[in-house]
Amino acid sequence: MPPTIELNVLHVFEKDAPDEQEPVDWLLYTTEPLQTRRDVEHVVDAYRCRWLIEELNKALKTGCVVQERQLESLDALTTMLALSLPIAVELLALRTLARAAPSTPADVVFHEQELAALRHVSHRPLPQRPTVQDALWCIAGLGGHIKNNGAPGWQVLQRGMEKFVNFAAGWCAAKRRNL
């Protein structure tokens, strides 16, 4: 580390927040330049992604139970992350889309054979043209979620996704073999 680091400070605040929401008021410290409007927007956009990154970490820690695995070697940890990260990203994409745009077609996240497998394994009905919301509820159901309990959490989604991924792999392999 150098003996000193030059920091820029950016105060971001919301002038006209909706009545029911607390206005944004951030004090950001950065080593990035803040010379132009584009520089400022870049720093603000990067900070706005922080919550998405936090959710990805939750998906890995809670959803993919990364910490419970207690791996000690770097090789074991990297292998486990290589296997878990795509699942965490898929879970995060599914949950994020189901919240932000629930009517988005499920084929944005899953391919056709995966949806056929989900339709077959889920005890919840999956429409012919399922949305991400439909797929989320089916996967949550596989994880033991009861719809009356509100939105599914990471642990339920992880259990459901683990069952689904295993079933879908077998389903897709069987379909390829029958071709």
Portion in strands:
5-15%
CATH architecture of the largest domain: Orthogonal Bundle
At the fold tier of CATH, the topology name of the largest domain is Transferase Inhibitor Protein From Tn5, Chain A, domain2
- Give the % helix: 55-70%
Describe the sheet with the most strands: 2 strands, antiparallel
Overall radius of gyration = 21 Å
Q: In total, how many domains does the architecture comprise?
A: 2
CATH class designation of the largest domain: Mainly Alpha
Q: CATH superfamily of the largest domain, called what?
A: Transferase Inhibitor Protein From Tn5, Chain
Shape: globular
Order of helices and strands: EEHHHHHH
Number of strands: 2
**Widest beta sheet: strand line-up:** 1-2
Mean pLDDT: 87
The class by helix and strand makeup works out as mainly alpha
Question: Total helix count?
Answer: 6
How far is the first residue's CA from the last residue's CA? Answer: 59 Å
Low-confidence runs (pLDDT<50, min 5 residues)? none
